[in-house]
Design a protein that fits this description.
By secondary structure, this protein is mainly beta. The chain has no helices and 13 strands. The protein has strands at 9-11, 15-17, 20-22, 26-32, 47-51, 64-69, 89-95, 99-100, 114-115, 128-129, 132-139, 147-148, 156-160. The strands form four sheets. It has a four-stranded antiparallel β-sheet, with no helix packed on it. A hairpin with a 2-residue loop joins strand 2 (15-17) and strand 3 (20-22).
Length: 168
């Protein structure tokens, strides 16, 4: 939230090696157009989660994926935290849904009011196309066995868009 133009809040579970937290080296947030439809700005007060904190098996790599690379987006994607070489960054990429139901800015699970695009289009139940939010968190390389606090496959991220007049 240090950028005065972006007062949104983003959250991810901590990455651990054993009982030691691995602090991120950097985080980048991209708002991209992946829809064939006209985009609408994110509504004030929007809350959403991408990924599944309770996942016990691999998630879709288009939603949550780990990779190694010298630059953002390098290399193949993995479902679990990979072991990267010392000259590569460990990267977590989380892609948020971009189709909104136009009725509520949150739901009890922080997901039902949002859907993912299908072939560049929003479903009729969630007709409003928003920019696709992609969060990339960069870490130093970690040893085998590193995982997020929610388990080997539980990587996810949250977005909190401030309400009108709210400050962070």
């Amino acid at each position: 939230c240090s950028d005065p133009g972006d007062s949104s809040g983003y959250w991810i579970p901590s990455l651990f090696v054993g009982r030691t937290v691995v602090p991120p080296s950097a985080a980048m947030v991209f708002y991209v157009k992946r829809s064939r439809e006209k985009l609408t700005a994110l509504p004030r007060g929007l809350v959403m989660i991408a990924g599944n904190a309770a996942a016990r098996s691999p998630q879709q790599k288009g939603i949550v994926a780990w990779s190694c690379g010298a630059a953002v987006g390098d290399g193949p994607r993995f479902s679990r935290v990979p072991v990267c070489s010392v000259d590569q960054w460990l990267q977590l990429q989380v892609t948020f849904p971009s189709c909104w139901n136009a009725r509520t800015v949150d739901s009890h699970d922080h997901k039902r009011h949002m859907k993912y695009l299908s072939r560049g289009r929003c479903p009729a139940s969630h007709p409003i196309a928003l920019p696709t939010l992609v969060l990339i968190v960069v870490y130093p390389p970690v040893p085998l066995g590193a995982q997020v606090a929610t388990g080997h496959f539980g990587a996810h991220a949250d977005l909190f868009e401030p309400r009108r007049g709210a400050e962070r």
